[in-house]
Amino acid sequence: MTALKWVGGIFGAYVAFVVLFETVLLGALQPDFAGYPMILLTSTDDAGEAQTRKLAVFKTDEKIYLSAHHWPRGWYQRALSYPDVVAELDGIEAHYIAVQVQGEEFERVSRRHPLPLPIMFLMGFPPERDILRLDRRPVL
Known about the structure:
The protein is α+β, with helices and mostly antiparallel strands.
């Protein structure tokens, strides 16, 4: 019985750490922690209000990608629902269309930018990874 208590306590502490990491620490540490350039992504919610989120960004074949691989994914769902987004990268703001990446492109980008096991551990092994590509919106 004592072993089960220890395992339960360790598991409970791990779950508490993941919740703390995903909700509080990530926002505070992400600029220094991720090791990737950061982007400010502004998307619209159902009420028409702008929501901005700081995210790690990566490039493959000169295209801009964002990876949704945490438990909280509100920014990802907003970008799918309202793909007209504004992104600020390296101090330059531009308008983009957020495109869900699937199929061969998803496999290729995932292979080039795998999620390391320590990062997956910190995030509590979220169930799936989704990727968005930001395509520059043509100037009208």
